[in-house]
Amino acid sequence: MQRKLVIFITVLTLISLFLRAFRLSEPPRYYFDEVYHAVTAKAYADNIRDAYDPFSKAPKEGTAYDWLHPPLAKLMQAGSIKMFGDAPLGWRLPSVIFGTAIIPLTFILAFLLFGPIAAIFSATVIAFENLTFVMSRITMNDVFVTVFSLVAFIFLVLHSQKKKFIYLVLCALFLGFAVSSKWTGAYTILAVAVFIFFVRLRGFLRLRTKLNFVGVATVPRYSLILIIPAVIYLLSYGQFWLQGHSVKQFVDLNKQIWWYQNRHDLEHTYGTTALFCVPKGTSAEKTWCPWILNARGVYFSYEQYGSPSGEAGDKQSLQSSNSENSAGLKAGYIYALGNPLIFWGGIIAVSFVLGKFIEERKKEYALILLGYFVFWVPWIFTPRLMFLYHYLPSLPFLAISLGVSLAAIYKTKFKYATIVILLVFIAVFFYFYPISSGLPIDPNSIDRYMWLSTWR
To answer: How many domains does the chain have?
Structure first.
């Protein structure tokens, strides 16, 4: 059985790696937030001091340095650029590797919590989830915080099961990597802290002894989940310190990050919060389009193929792209949109897991619910607009919820229905694959992908 599981996850991971790496250099230019992330990674590779300065001039027109996020993910992208050059492969390869790693990590976490059948289902679901796929092919930091959070959860589970101190240390280490890639990693720390409290509280209620709940030795032990991430965060700015920046400049930089993250005046056509579309900012008019319903994706890129000029048309919109069609013209669209059936089916699955938790009070269900809710519920109260891809760290837990639900069905007389459901998920993934990957298509065919009016 173990050998078959290893073969399964290896084959699934290799297939996923191939799909993510195929045509990775298209479009052959910066698109969407690569104008910030890839540019800054190149600046890190060249040890340019201005990359850490919130008030520095843009390195070139249409770009800007990304000082808004901690540097760890960009430092890894910088290493790739040093190895493979300042080209799309160099910018995007780390995202492909980390985005692919989400699949076996989801498998491992589901296996540790719920066993092999749920793990197989969970890994298959996340492997063919379109938003996860899209974010695995762009130079941004979201797949990095997702991977580090998953690894932290895995070590948290191992610590909970085996009671070994080293697993707690490793959990804290990856919490540090997560928050050093994006401040969203702080939500991972919160989830871990809540889970530890929940487990200790259960122990206290069971044994009725305060010593078991908060023993003298346990307080400093669990404080590591705060201390180690703080140290890692400081160390992630190693280049910053080596360039001669002062402590005051570090404090000022983080103040600027906090200020920007609390802006109300940002506008973007595809701007959302966890519940609403807010194209004119969070203080303006809102319309209902929650992330969990996959109601509003993000238009990343439009690339023309076969046009007389051969130039990219990245500023054209989805709505108007087919009006200027000419003979032989093909267009590559990249649209950050989730697999709709996985998103919608996931709502039912999370509800099932919530019901199981209420019924059985098992810590395994608690952990999955924490992982799912902690990465999007806080964004309901965000002062600035967000995008659908901020929901990405919740998706492995959505996939595990689906895996648990499908595993429950598999144990009934409807076991073969689970295979049909998985095949439908996979079919929908490939249906949307052209607009997830930028594969050239007839621009007149774009309408068939716009299932909801809010997707335009």
So the answer is: 1
